[in-house]
Design goal:
- Helices cover 35% and strands 20% of the residues.
- With 417 residues, it is α/β, with parallel strands linked by helices.
- The chain folds into 2 domains: 96 residues, Urease, subunit C, domain 1 (Roll), CATH 2.30.40; 284 residues, Alpha-Beta Barrel (TIM Barrel), CATH 3.20.20.
- An 8-stranded parallel beta sheet has the order 5-6-7-8-9-10-11-12. Strands 4-13-14-15 form a 4-stranded antiparallel beta sheet. The protein has a 3-stranded antiparallel beta sheet with strand order 1-2-3, with no helix packed on it.
- Helix 2 packs parallel to helix 3.
- The chain is globular and about 65 Å long.
- Bound molecules: zinc ion.
- The site of zinc ion has 6 residues, from loops.
Length: 417
């Protein structure tokens, strides 16, 4: 990496991501909540934040802190071409995913995951939580490959691996061995709770998983209620389990889509329970909008999606993730955090100029991943930015110019990888 001679930037920056309000008291804040700042750094850390007062010298750049992708599947990224799911149903995706899984090699996993990490780095990501198909022998190899990449990429992208297996697997000898391995590598235990459900089995599987995670002091991230049926069934089951035990570990509910179909009163009561137990939620609007509520010859009017606003109102930390990258579950997706904000806008009606509209992509995503740096800036914060040629949110979200990435105060050059 080349050390730049210029160790400051003048740019528009979201006021809500400045940690200390005193730093920007005199700033002229635009209607979109942006303020013009001169940010200087040294040795990888911010050393000063100054307000640009002069209206004749307003910047033409737009800055965001490097961002966080809280839910991805990089081990199966770019498999759509060989394994398309043209009917684009949830069941079809699962079927094609299993076909691909049978022929998957370590080399495949390494090469597509590296491709994904390269794209992610240049798009502006600093961390990714990825769910890794981890069932059986090839699953074990998958996971080890991702853990190797985690070590190799640590100075560029922090990778968190969630071992994704059938829920009941965690209660087998092999499952417990896998759990120890995952916990020792700083990963999380994962699984899927979606219809069809078996009442007792779901409860017991979840209870055992929570107890196992607690013994290992390890977090859990579940694919839960990724469905347009049985509204909120999986989350209700999880809440029953949490009521039944004193055990507390960090738990994330990814998807939580069918919960959005509950009646308002029931939805609010469930959101309060989720908040009470400190469970986090990751909404995945792109894959949900593509796969769920799909019936032939029908354009869906009701879209199953996590009820983001109602959850926020109840005090739940909600992040938004991009999920699949050109695989049987979703043919689009490219680990681009700015594009994710943009594409999520019409689906979720989250507006980045409001605090609760931006948080799911920034501070809340960092909180769900338990990141040390929450993504706000102040003196001493990492000099880690995505720089875009823009002076408003609309321009930033639609401009297709080259992005510049500042990583620990150094410019990321194109030919370094
Ligand atoms: Zn997923």
């Amino acid at each position: 990496m080349n050390v730049s001679k210029e160790n400051f930037l003048e740019a528009w920056f979201p006021r809500g991501l400045v940690r200390n309000g005193n730093d920007v008291l005199s700033a002229q804040v635009s209607v979109e909540g942006l303020c013009p700042l001169r940010i200087a750094w040294d040795k990888g850390k911010i050393i000063s934040i100054q307000v640009i007062e002069s209206k004749s010298a307003l910047p033409s750049k737009f800055l965001l802190p490097r961002l966080v992708e809280p839910h991805s599947h990089i081990d199966k990224a770019f498999t759509w071409n060989k394994f398309p799911n043209l009917k684009a149903t949830y069941e079809g995706a699962l079927e094609v995913n299993l076909e691909e899984y049978k022929v998957r090699t370590v080399e495949d996993v390494r090469s597509r995951s590296e491709r994904a990490l390269n794209i992610a780095l240049r798009s502006g990501l600093r961390a990714i939580r990825t769910h890794v198909d981890s069932f059986g022998l090839s699953g074990h190899q998958n996971l080890e490959t991702l853990l190797e990449l985690k070590r190799e990429w640590e100075s560029f992208i922090h990778l968190q691996c969630v071992a994704l297996v059938p829920l009941e697997y965690w209660d087998t000898g092999e499952g417990r061995l896998l759990a120890s391995r995952v916990a020792s590598a700083g990963g999380l235990l994962g699984g899927v709770i979606a219809p069809p459900f078996d009442n007792n089995e779901s409860f017991l599987n979840l209870l055992k998983l929570v107890q196992l995670a607690s013994q290992l002091n390890c977090g859990i991230d579940l694919h839960i209620d990724e469905s347009d049926r049985y509204p909120g069934y999986g989350i209700k089951k999880l809440i029953q389990v949490l009521r039944h035990t004193d055990v507390r570990v960090p738990i994330t509910c990814s998807h939580s889509s069918s919960m959005g179909l509950l009646r308002p009163g029931e939805l609010c009561r469930l959101a309060d329970q989720i908040s009470h137990y400190g469970v986090n939620v990751i909404a995945l609007p792109l894959t949900n909008s593509w796969l769920l509520g799909r019936y032939s010859n029908k354009t869906p009017i009701t879209r199953p999606i996590a009820p983001i606003r109602q959850l926020q109102k109840a005090g739940v930390i909600v992040a938004v993730g991009g999920d699949n990258v050109q695989d049987p579950w979703f043919p689009l997706g490219r680990l681009d955090p700015i594009e994710l904000i943009s594409l999520s806008m019409p689906i979720t009606q989250l507006a980045p100029w409001y605090r609760l509209g931006l948080a799911p992509f920034t501070t809340s995503a960092a909180a769900v991943m338990g990141m040390q740096w929450d993504g706000t800036i102040g003196v001493g914060s990492p000099a880690d930015f995505v720089v875009i040629d823009a002076s408003s949110w609309t321009e930033a979200l639609t401009t297709k110019t080259k992005r510049q990435i500042l990583l620990s105060g150094k410019w990321l050059e194109k030919n370094e990888f």
